[in-house]
Amino acid sequence: MEIWINPACSKCRGALRLLEEEGADYTVRRYLEDVPTADELRDVLARLGLEPWELTRTQEAAAKELGLKEWPRTAEARERWIAALAAHPKLIQRPVITADDGTALVARTDEAVREALGRS
């Protein structure tokens, strides 16, 4: 299992705390430093069952600068969104846990972290 975190994020710290309490075997990826490639984002999106705009933090300053709220949310615009996430990783919703069963979750709650643990 791998968890993508921003150490400054309280949700990420909470998820890590719960993983530790449960004795989980996991790897931490500080995705602002070890930025996911477009291919990695495509893979995680497929595992999440989400479109890139559903994984985007649209209230971030970079999102406002890019005008993301006005971007089309269509199959044709999908690669543009993925490129924006790869170029501006702070836009990625967090934490993301990739489970050993091939799925992934945005683990913003303790329940989601426990669900990821059940999948690994």
Automatic annotation (TrEMBL):
<dbReference type="InterPro" id="IPR006659">
    <property type="entry name" value="Arsenate_reductase"/>
</dbReference>
<dbReference type="InterPro" id="IPR036249">
    <property type="entry name" value="Thioredoxin-like_sf"/>
</dbReference>
<protein>
    <submittedName>
        <fullName>Arsenate reductase family protein</fullName>
    </submittedName>
</protein>
<dbReference type="Pfam" id="PF03960">
    <property type="entry name" value="ArsC"/>
</dbReference>
<comment type="similarity">
    <text>Belongs to the ArsC family.</text>
</comment>
<dbReference type="InterPro" id="IPR006660">
    <property type="entry name" value="Arsenate_reductase-like"/>
</dbReference>
<keyword id="KW-0560">Oxidoreductase</keyword>
